[in-house]
Amino acid sequence: MLTALPQKFRTWLFRPRIEHGSITLTQRRIFIIPTKQGFTLVFVLVLMLLGDINYNLSLGYVLTFLLTMMAVMSMLHAFRNLAHLEIRAGRAEPVFCGEVAQFMLQFNNRSLLTRYQLCLVQSGDSFWKNTNTPLQCNVPAKLDTEVAFPMRTTRRGWLQPGRLTLYTEFPLGLFYCWSYLHFDTRCLVYPKPLSDAPLPTGSSPDGTGKRSMAGDEDFSGLRKYTAGDALPRIDWKAYARERGLQVKQFSTPLGEELWLDLADAPDRDAEEKLARMTRWVLDAEAQGLRYGLRIPNGELPPNSGIAHRDECLRRLALFNLPHQAPA
Questions:
Q1: What's the pTM?
Q2: What is the mean pLDDT of residues 142-163?
Q3: Which of 1, 212, 233, 273 has its CA 20 to 30 A from that of 121?
Q4: CA angle at residue 303 from 211 to 197, to 5 degrees?
Q5: DSSP track, 89-127
Q6: SS3 165
Q7: Judgement on whether residues 81 and 37 belong to the same structural domain of the protein
Q8: Which helix (H) or strand (E) holds 327?
């Protein structure tokens, strides 16, 4: 119970909440505390002051108060490095499990001051610092800067960055100045596809899921003219070569309705089945097939295209996971 007290106190003190839209770092959102070097400097200044009082050293007073003023100005600059900085969360593109998700954050610096050594890290369990590796950046004056915060993915479904800590120790490292960011953004993580998984047999004779039908896209050959054929289809160059009246024929590739059924996956483990289905979806789209998706909680009619592929991957990513409201 005693080990949980610091975390409970931290939660009560800072009252974490999810932010919507953009936020501006005002003085009510910025916290500051001395670092280890700062506490060391305070201890040294106290010893110097006691020595000045004991020995009545005039130059000692000057040096002590000069160093104290330097520390106070360092605290002011650390606070000003974050103050009135506007931050907005952007969109996170979907990734496959095992890849690195990139959460985009837009920093809007409307002041004339360049913000140096801004560090962004996932909030840890310690009071003001954690052991996670920070992402460091600078935000120029009067400019907008987009920063991609990376997060490693370990499982499919929705990934939320949680509460982030934006901090700085600029300029002298004597004070740790920070603010908390908790946006309502999230990233969809698809199942990790298998490296190789042959597609199930399609409904066409060759099993490729493709056939051709009469259409207007691809030239497929010539045939003899018959009464009623359209004049623009006549190959006049062939007629000029005394080959007779011949008509151009065209065909249009037509994708068969190739169904990708979870029940057809030979794997035993549910996650391995989803990995195989993910590979099937990617390969079917790459080959230009029309494919549908069948899973126990519903099916998606056959279609093709990027939007159809993304919808199939989304359903596979969220299969048998608790429902979450859209962010």
A1: 0.75
A2: 93
A3: 1
A4: 75
A5: E-----EETTSEEEEEEEEEE-SSSPEEEEEEEE--SSS
A6: strand
A7: yes
A8: none
